[in-house]
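Aim 2 progress update. The chain analyzed this quarter is reproduced below.
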Amino acid sequence: MSQKQTHEFQTEVSQLLDLMIHSLYSNKEIFLRELVSNASDAIDKLKFESLSNDKLIEVKEEPSIHIDIDKDAGTITIRDNGIGMTQEEVMENIGTIANSGTKKYLKSLDKVQTQDSNLIGQFGVGFYSAFIVSNTVTLLSRKAGDNKANGTKWVSKGKGDYSIETVELDDYGTTIILDVKKAESEFVDDYRIRGIVSKYSDHITVPILMIKQSEEDKDVIEYEKINEATAFWMKDKKELSQSDYDEFYKSLTYDFEGPLTQIHNRVEGKLEYSSLLFIPKKAPFDMWEPKRKSGVKLYAKRVFIMEGNEELLPQYLRFIKGVIDTADLSLNVSREILQGSKVVDTIKKASVKRILSELDKMSKNKPEDYSLFWKEFGMVIKEGVVEDSANKDKISNLLRFTSTSTENSDQTVSLQDYIGRMKEDQKNIYYVTADTYDSAKGSPHLEIFKQKDIEVLLLSDRVDEWLVANFGDFEEYSLKSIAKGDLEDLDTKEDKKKKEKTVKDYESVISKAQKILENQVKEVKVSSRLSESPSCLVADENELGGNMERIMKSLGQDIPDTKPILEINPNHPLVKKLKTKIDKDIVKVLFDQAVLSEGGQIKEPAEFVKRMNKLMLAK
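Predicted C-alpha cells:
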C-alpha cells in the first residue's frame, strides 16, 4: 500500500467545484443520474473490451449497479462492476480537465445558467455533481484485470485539493461514497432515491439494485432491481409519449431540454435493426471542433459497441443524437471492420434518408420548428450539398438563405421560393457573397439588380463560398455570382447599344487608368452594373472572388496570384472628372473605394486618407 499523497486540483476544476457547491441550486437530484450514467458507461466499456480480452472478466458476475443508503452514517454508495480505473486514469479524469469540457462549460454559463445543474453532464463533468449534495466524496476503483493490490482510493471535500493512495481492492469496478450534507438529508432516503432512478434511469439496460427488506427476517439482506432495464429504443413507439422520449433523450445526451423531434424505427426482414435518432433544439458547444465525434451510439444485440463513428452518419449530420441497435453485427466488430460493412452502409443510407425526409416534412408542416432548426444547424446542412452527392437534391430543398426580398438577416428563402419569384426570361439564380450580411446587403454589385427588380441571394456564412463553388445547378438553373464575369444576359438591345457608345467615349480614360493601376488590376472596364457607386471590383468567371480569397488567406491557404477587374461607373461625377483630366489620385481612390466596398483591406490606408482629404479640399 502506497503512502497517501495530496494534490491540488487544476484551476478550472477548482472553479467548477466551487460552482457546484455554492451556485447550483435547482434540480439537485441530477447528481444521481450523472453517477448512474457513468457507472452504466463503465459497464458498457467492460463488455466491449472483454470481447477481445477474456482476462478482464475475473468472475462471471452479472453486470449491475448497486445503490446503498446508510441513514445513520448519512451516506449514499454507488457501486458498479464496470471497467474501473488505474490510478493514472483517476488523476487524469478527475484531478484535471483532461478530456472533459470543464473549461468550455464554465465559459458557457451565464448568470441564469449557473442556477441550472441540468447542464453539467452535457459537458462531460458529471462526476463533479456529487459535490452538490456531499461534504466529502470517496472514490474506490480498480481496473478490471489488474492485481487486487493495484486499487486506488481518492478522497476530496471539493475545496481545492484531493488525496490519492494505492489500496487493495477485492472487486474490480468503481465505488463512490457520498458523505451527504445535513441540509441535503432528503437524499438519504430509500423512497427518494428509488423515485430519482425511476425518473431518470429507468431505461438503463444494466440492472440497478437496492436492498429489499425482508418482512420475515429483517436481518436478511436481499437486493431487488428498481429499474425496468429494458432498452428504451426496443419499445413499441405506440406505447411511448413525447415526455417519455424527452426524458430518455435528456438522460442519453445530458441536454437540459427535450429534442426538437425524434425518428423512431424498427426494421425487420433481410436486415434487422432498431434506430432512435433525435434532432436537438440547440447546437452542441463543440459542433465545429475537428475531432468532435457524432452523438450516435451503436449497439449489437443490446450490447454497446462504440460511439461517434463516422460510418454511422455522415459528418454534416454530426448534430444527430441517438441509438442504432442491430442483430446483424458480431459483438467483436472493430472500427476497421465497420468501414467495409454492408450492414452498416445499408443502415447509414436508410438513416440519412429518414433524417432528410423528417426535415423536409418539418419545413413544410412545422415552419416555426424548422426555422429554429435552421438557425442552429443550417451551416452544417450546407456542408451536405458537397459531401453527399447522392442526396444533393434532397439537401438542396432544405437550404435556406436571406435575399434582397427579405427585410432582415433571417435565412428563410428556399431555392424553390426564389425560382417562384424569378423574372420570366431569367436564366440564373443570382447571389453575392460577403463577410457579413450588412456587407452583402450594401454591395455595389446589387445596384443593377435593384433597378431591374431581380432578387439576389445574400450569402455571408463562411461555408457559403464553398457551397456555391461546388453546387452546380438547381433544377435547370445555375447559381451565378453577381461579382464575377459580365452581366450581358441582363442587358437589353438598347442597353448594349448605349454601353458600346459609352465605352468609346471612355477609351482614353480606361487606357490611362489601366496604366496607373497596372500592378493592382487586370483590366479597367466601363460598368453596366453600377448606378450609384463610382466603382467596384469584379473577378473573372472562373477565378476566386475577393471574399473567397480572404477566407482562404485567413485559413493559411496558398492562393494563386490573380488581379481583379476594376469597373467604373460612367455616370458618377468622380468618374466624369477623369474625362476632362486624368487625375492619378482619383484613379487610386476609385480602386481603394472598390476594395473597401467589398469588405477588403487597402494596402496603404494613410495614403488613401491623404488622397480623400485632397479631393475634398479641391475646388
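The first strand starts at residue 5 and ends at 8. The CA atoms of residues 21 and 268 lie 49 Å apart. These observations will guide the mutagenesis experiments scheduled for the next reporting period.
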